[in-house]
Amino acid sequence: MNFPLYIAKRYLRSKSKQNAVNIINFITFLVIVIGSAALFIVLSAFSGLKSFSLQFTDAFDPDLKAIPATGKFFTVSTENDQALQNLKSVAHYSKELEERVYLTFREKSHLATIKGVDSNFQMTTGIDSMLYFGNWGVNEYSGVIGIGAFNILGVPLNNYETPLIALAPKPGKGSINQQVLNSKPYNSLPLVLTGVYAVEENLDRKYVITSLPTVQAFLEKDSLTVSAINFKLSKGFDLESARAEIAAVLGSKGRILSRQELNGSLYKMLNTENVATYLIFTLVLIIALFNVVGAIIMMILDKQQNLRTLFALGSPVRDLRFTFFLQGLLTTCIGGLIGVVIGILIILSQLAFGWLKITPSLAYPVAFDWQNVLLVFLTIAALGFVSAKIASSRINKRLVAIS
After folding, report:
1. Where in this chain does the record put each MacB-like periplasmic core domain (predicted)?
2. Are 144 and 251 in contact (CB under 8 A)?
3. Among 1, 137, 265, 339, which is disulfide-ready with 33 (CB 3.0 to 4.6 Å)?
4. Residue 376 sits in which domain range?
């Protein structure tokens, strides 16, 4: 057996004759356990919050989305349609057309976006699963609205007598003259609401969704004009290869964006918060692991007579340093492992029982991720390595030489 490792394990298990040294070692070990458990729990909590936040965008946004390369609209020809249907990487695709409109109901009004979708929209997104109440009645002159806009306007569902009115400027060129004003420079569309969706605050105030042909007629666009195409990818197909196939069909008329690119600012904010939290807790661990340096130095002083004996028997200073380096590394790694196990048990209990609540009906979201396990353990091991190296370097010939 390796001699420094054997001595390090003996020192790790044995108690010192000095009670103060034992107390310092215990506190050091406890700090490592608590610090690693806390770091893992916080990272798991942020992973849960990230998943919880992104589930709303996952419900509203497709795997890939084609938007106009320039302008607000582009055309999808019959040949494009046929080519998209033949793509093996695409399980489903749906076309949509959206534009800013002025919604009015009785004496209330709200600026929103009308989105016309075809019958495949539910297959490319999960928006119908986010219905708060009502049903998905997206047909001619009927649709669904976000709960934010619904609360602003106060529109009853299935109100055929006084439906919601959407207003949009008529397309055209030139200045507005008296003749244009007399003939109403806007188009109006009555909509009977059949359902209300709830995703997140901005989206809930933004959209009213109805059928694609209805919106195309309302905006005076032909049946080939769309503002975006949503794609649901087939299982087993790579995102980038599917993007390349779709781009080959649409050519230069469209840009293909992933769900992450569609929500770039949200992903960037969540990732930045996660990194910042990790760095803050790592700084706390760095401060806490100074205890390891102090504990090892106390052990060195406590075992000074033993070190002199080993040095006199022929053990080189290098091996004596390595002995206490291994002791410090074993202390941090074992403490980190125990802390991670405690953290895993706490996270699994939260997933199973939801004992920590945000609201009476909503448990605090957490996520168990093996990457977090590996990250915490590697962080503890790296900090333990540095701490043990610093402390063991205190051993020199002057310390162990018999005077």
Report:
1. 26-248
2. no
3. 339
4. 3-57+267-400
Burial class (CB in 10 A: 0-12, 13-18, 19+), 10: exposed
105: left (phi over 0), alpha (psi -120 to 50) or beta: beta
Question: Which secondary-structure segment (H or E) carries 166?
Answer: strand 164-169
Residue with tokens 């905006």: 219
Which residues on neighbouring strands pair with residue 156, listed in sequence order? none
Spatial contact of 273 and 88, defined as CB atoms under 8 Å apart: no
Find the largest Cα–Cα distance for the chain: 112
Residue 111 is encoded by which pair of tokens? 């600026």
If you write DSSP's letter for every residue of 207-266 in order, what string do you get? EEEEEHHHHHHHTT--TTEESEEEEEEPTT--HHHHHHHHHHHHGGGEEEEEHHHHTHHH
Radius of gyration of the chain from Cα atoms? Answer: 33
Are 234 and 63 contacting, i.e. CB atoms less than 8 angstroms apart? Answer: no
Distance, CA of 292 to CA of 298 (rounded, Å): 10
Phi and psi (nearest 5°) for 235? -65, 140
**Residue 384, pLDDT above cutoff 60:** yes
Pairing state between β 186-197 and 142-146: parallel
Check residue 116 and report its DSSP letter: E
Give the integer Cα–Cα distance in Å for 50 and 247: 30
| Out of 145-149, 156-160, 168-172, 202-206, least confident range | 168-172
Same domain, 97 and 222: yes
Asked if residue 78 and residue 20 are part of one domain, the reply reads: no
> Tokens at residue 92, please?
């489903």
Cross-strand bridge partners of residue 34: none
Query: Are 11 and 80 found together in one domain?
Result: no
Residue 132 parent element (H or E):
strand 131-134
How far, in Å, CA of 140 to CA of 137, rounded?
9
Asked if residue 257 and residue 140 are part of one domain, the reply reads yes
Q: Does residue 16 sit in helix, strand or coil?
A: coil
